[in-house]
Amino acid sequence: MTSFASHVRTIENLRGPAGRLEALLNTGQPEAQFSALVCHPHPAGGGTIHNKVVYHAMKAFSSFGLPVLRFNFRGVGLSEGEHADGRGERDDVRAALDYLDHTFQRPIVFAGFSFGSHVGLHACCGDTRVAGLIALGLPVHAAGRDYTYGFLERCTQPKLFVSGDHDEYGPLDQLEQAWARAPEPKRIRVIAGADHFFQGTAGSPEPKLAAMQTEIRAWLAETFQLAAL
Fold first, then answer.
1. pLDDT (0 to 100) of residue 41
2. Domain ranges (residues) in the chain
3. What would the DSSP string read from start to end of 183-198?
């Protein structure tokens, strides 16, 4: 594996329908075949671009030399606007896709964690600019609410679902029902001893973020024939 330094820069010109979106871009290699977008978890739980799962997903993409965009949803950090219960946030995702498409003009791979995966799948499924989708800690039952994923039936891009076997917001039976609705190509990976945030459990206390990264890297390498740097 060759050494590769990904530099981070602030993006000033990413705007969604609610105004400017605070964003960071990890630069990639000029010859990278894809760009990547990573979306953060629910703002009510403190979700931002600096979330550990988001950061580790970004590092997995960067290990292949891909440019990676992270942004704060409306009303989070320095992003303008107010939280819109997921519907407005789908438009924020579309604005980020527009930015990546305009800037790099290459296929995009999406990854989202928790709320970010729910919102991002809605926005990215069926978008011809998006070559693949990664759902990390997909929420299926949270705060007394069941999340439904009927739209996945029309989602023909390659898909990877990664969750912990102790994910309190993703009971495995409901997660597998959502995954079953999606057409091939698809893959599901359940990490033993991991909670929703890919941290450890009482019986397996060490963090599982590295295991999550391994699943992302393996899927990217196999699905898109990418080689790590």
1. 97
2. 8-224
3. PSSEEEEEETT--TTS
Q: What is the pLDDT of residue 5?
A: 66
- Residues near 225 by beta carbon (within 8 Å), at least 6 away in sequence: none
The CATH code for residues 8-224 is 3.40.50.1820
Q: pTM of this prediction?
A: 0.96
Buried b (16+ CB within 10 A) or exposed e, 183-216: eeebbbebbebbbbbbbbeeebeebbbebbbebb
**HEC sequence for 72-97:** CCCCCCCCCCCCCCCHHHHHHHHHHH
Q: What is d(CA 26, CA 178) in angstroms, rounded to the nearest whole number?
A: 32
State the amino acid at position 101 in one-letter form. Answer: D
- Whether the predicted pLDDT of 162 surpasses 90: yes
